[in-house]
Specification:
The protein is mostly helical. It has a domain of 59 residues: lambda repressor-like DNA-binding domains (434 Repressor (Amino-terminal Domain), Orthogonal Bundle). 43% of the residues lie in helices and 7% in strands. The protein has a two-stranded antiparallel ribbon. The longest helix has 11 residues. The two termini are 31 Å apart.
Length: 90
């Protein structure tokens, strides 16, 4: 996944527990854990804002981009370029 979530790093820097942050932000510890482990598909700007306020940081401290292949391909594979009636060599 090219978007990296660094909530665990920020928690360690602030010496804060996940449950404490979840309480301050107003989300469940389970949802915060999903975000922390990188399994979240999206994050609301309001949640990101509350996380930044609670951790006294910037959005770039929590989220970073790492170049690499996308996590799930969106496009379908290209159609075969072999003329009709000919078999493609494998």
């Amino acid at each position: 996944m090219p978007i990296i979530v660094n909530v665990d790093l920020m928690l360690a820097r602030r010496k804060m527990r996940l449950n404490t942050l979840a309480e301050k932000v107003g989300i469940t510890p389970q949802n915060l854990s999903v975000l922390k482990t990188g399994r979240a598909k999206a994050i609301r700007f309001s949640t990101l804002e509350q996380l930044c306020a609670a951790l006294d940081c910037q959005p770039g401290d929590i989220l970073s981009f790492e170049a690499g292949p996308p996590s799930a391909p969106e496009a379908t594979p290209p159609a075969s370029t072999t003329p009709a009636g000919e078999s493609a060599e494998v």
